[in-house]
Write a structure and sequence with these properties.
This protein is an alpha/beta fold. Helix content is 46%, strand content 17%. It has 11 helices and 9 strands. Strands 1, 2, 3, 4, 5, 6, 7, 8 and 9 form a 9-stranded mixed sheet that branches. Bound molecules: ligand C2E and magnesium ion (MG) (3 copies). Keywords: Membrane, Transmembrane, Transmembrane helix.
């Protein structure tokens, strides 16, 4: 007869579990094909200086087209992280984003910034340095135009060596931005310990700030802190004019969100790059 200890193993095969494993398996296989067949695209979401309405640059966001639209990065990035596919994906996004930004900067006669999301998992190995250097070399972009957006996940889970890699990145002239600021527990102590240049306030607070005095206070305090630490401050997820005006009055350096511009393909980014947002 079955002893008690076999019960957990039987639960393994319940329907919802196998459906979710199946889903991950399909994503992994699909991603492998997407990487080989160059199906992944890079979209750009511009960010602006609120006062002048001037385009400053864009954030690169990976896109994986499927039959109905796009597979959400929130679904496949975690899979890529757990299979190791994130390295190839990350290197590809870095290269594409730097090359496109170099081209557009030449066309505009103005050095645009390109912010690239980098997974904490990429900081588990030295490869990130070589991949970054290669993207910079191939594109001919200035390292100072490149910003890496990282979340506090970089520091969680004992990723030894991450701190040293961050120092190396900064020594190259590349800048660091703390993404989704306010979402985690420990961002403050990480800001203190590591060489960040920008702080990107999470869209949750930006979206709440007009209605919620608490959210407003948190945004205001984040701005004051960033100024005291001489960090640039970016607001993500700006969806309304009221939010934008509020951010302008708080002297936020850069604003990004659907109200200003959606993530778009490179040819569209080229078209809007000349337009100020006022
Ligand atoms: P994130 O870096 O915080 O990027 C912001 C996300 O918010 C993007 O979703 C963007 O499309 C969305 N967004 C922008 N403006 C607004 C707005 O006004 N309102 C709302 N509701 N959403 C807005 P997306 O493209 O689905 O990316 C989700 C996350 O996936 C990113 O969050 C980032 O963590 C990750 N990701 C995306 N591309 C890459 C990549 O190339 N590499 C890595 N490692 N992660 C990526
Ligand atoms: Mg980001
Ligand atoms: Mg973010
Ligand atoms: Mg996010």
């Amino acid at each position: 007869h079955f002893s008690k200890k076999y019960k957990p193993a039987l639960r393994f095969y319940d329907e919802t579990m196998s459906a979710s494993f199946r889903y991950r398996f399909d994503l992994e296989q699909g991603l492998r094909k997407a990487l080989i067949d160059s199906e992944l695209q890079v979209y750009y979401q511009p960010f602006y200086a609120p006062g002048s309405g001037e385009l400053v640059g864009a954030e690169a966001l990976v896109r994986w087209p499927d039959k109905t639209g796009f597979v959400s990065p929130a679904d496949f990035i975690p899979v890529a992280e757990s299979t190791g596919q994130i390295r190839a994906l990350g290197a590809l996004v870095l290269k594409r984003a730097c090359c496109d930004t170099r081209l557009l900067s030449e066309q505009l006669g103005k050095k645009l910034v390109i912010a690239v999301n980098v997974s904490p998992v990429q900081f588990a190995s030295n490869d990130i340095i070589a991949d970054l250097q290669e993207a910079i070399n191939i594109s001919g972009i200035d390292a100072t135009q490149v910003v890496l957006e990282i979340t506090e996940g970089v520091f969680i889970g004992q990723i030894a060596g991450a701190a040293r890699l961050l120092e190396e990145v900064v020594a190259m002239g590349v800048r660091l931005s703390m993404d989704d600021f306010g979402q985690g527990y420990s961002s403050l102590s990480y800001l203190r310990m590591h060489p960040f240049s920008f702080l990107k306030i999470d869209k949750l607070f930006i979206q709440g700030m007009v209605q919620s005095p608490q959210d407003y206070a948190l945004v205001q305090a984040s701005v004051a802190m960033a100024q005291a630490l001489q960090l640039g401050i970016v607001a993500e997820g700006v969806e309304t004019r009221e939010q934008l005006e509020m951010l302008e009055s708080l002297s936020v350096d850069y604003a990004q969100g659907f109200y200003l511009a959606r993530p778009m393909a490179f040819d569209e980014y080229q078209k809007v790059a000349n337009i100020k947002h006022v």
